[in-house]
Amino acid sequence: MNSDRIYYSHDAEMQALRGRAVLMLVFLTFGLGIGAALAVLFSPVSGKKARRELAESLGDGLNTGRESIEPFMKRLEEQFNDLRKSVDERMKHA
């Protein structure tokens, strides 16, 4: 920690760190709120259109994610079945 303060107990130091973290989160939340409000105020599209575009983008992203995960899931299922067969065979011979 880069601080010139001297703390006489570990608890006091931890309390000061928590206080700084809370203050930082408050300012971050405040800044995000102001940024969101300004984005809505100066947005070139209407709210209805923006919500529709956001929903379409999220839907496209979900579909793309599912398509990219599907081959991996199939391969994982095949490997799991092979592993299960291998374990069953070893259990029979044990």
Number of strands: 0
Low-pLDDT sequence parts: none
The total count of helices amounts to 2
Shape: flat
Order of helices and strands: HH
* Count of discrete structural domains: 2
Proportion in β-strands? under 5%
| Largest sheet properties | none
Termini separation comes to 58 Å
Output mean pLDDT.
86
Q: Determine the structural class based on helices, strands and strand pairing.
A: mainly alpha
The Rg value, from CA coordinates, equals 27 Å
Question: Residue share in helices?
Answer: over 70%
Tell me what the structure shows.
The chain is mainly alpha-helical and 94 residues long. It folds into two domains: 1-42; 45-94. 84% of the residues lie in helices and 0% in strands. It has helices at residues 10-41, 47-93. The chain is flat.
What are the defining features of this structure?
94 residues; mainly alpha; 2 domains
Topology:
Elements: H1 10-41, H2 47-93
Short description:
The chain is an all-alpha fold. The protein has two helices and no strands. It folds into two domains: about 40 residues; about 50 residues.
